[in-house]
Amino acid sequence: MNQNDIAYIAGLFDGEGSVMCKQYMRKKKGEKKAYKTWNIRCEIAMTEKEVIEWLHETLGFGWSKEKTGKRPKHYKRQWRWQCSHRDALTFAKLVWPYTQIKLHQIERIIDHYEPYLQELGDNIVELDTYRK
């Protein structure tokens, strides 16, 4: 994967993507007590299947599939690529230098998994560390 691919993926993500970085209470099966759980996920959804397939193949992680459920007949079919947890961190570090619109959300993922970066005092990822 080259820098042009990464920049293109970051642009797709800024325009068609979404980030979930949310904590909630969840009970495990058979447990009486609920525990705090994080749901951290990045997603890109669109009607162009080939783009989603290219994205999944190029990144080499996450998963892709067609969105299921009811839709009006005149709506196009939709495909999604998603990654979660540590894969979301990998994705966030990858697109961080090129992201514009969703920069704050991407930084929340990085800050969640690597809080020591906040000790730098500026809450910004070192570009040279993640660009290869």
How is this structure best described in words?
There is one protein chain. The protein is an alpha+beta fold and 132 residues long. The chain has a single domain, classed as Homing endonucleases (Endonuclease I-creI, Roll), CATH 3.10.28.10. It is 38% helix and 26% strand. It contains 5 helices and 4 strands; from the N terminus they run H-E-E-H-E-E-H-H-H. A 4-stranded antiparallel sheet has the order 1-2-4-3. Strand 1 and strand 2 form a beta hairpin. It is globular, with a radius of gyration of 17 Å. The N and C termini lie close together (11 Å).
Helix fraction by DSSP (H/I, runs of at least 4): 25-40%
How many domain modules? 1
* SSE arrangement, N to C: HEEHEEHHH
CATH superfamily: Homing endonucleases
Shape: globular
Characterize the biggest β-sheet. 4 strands, antiparallel
Structural class: alpha+beta
Give the terminus-to-terminus CA distance: 11 Å
CATH topology: Endonuclease I-creI
Which blocks of ≥5 consecutive residues have pLDDT under 50? none
CATH architectural label: Roll
Binned strand content: 25-35%
Order of strands, main sheet, comes to: 1-2-4-3
Give the class-level CATH name. Answer: Alpha Beta
Q: How large is the radius of gyration?
A: 17 Å
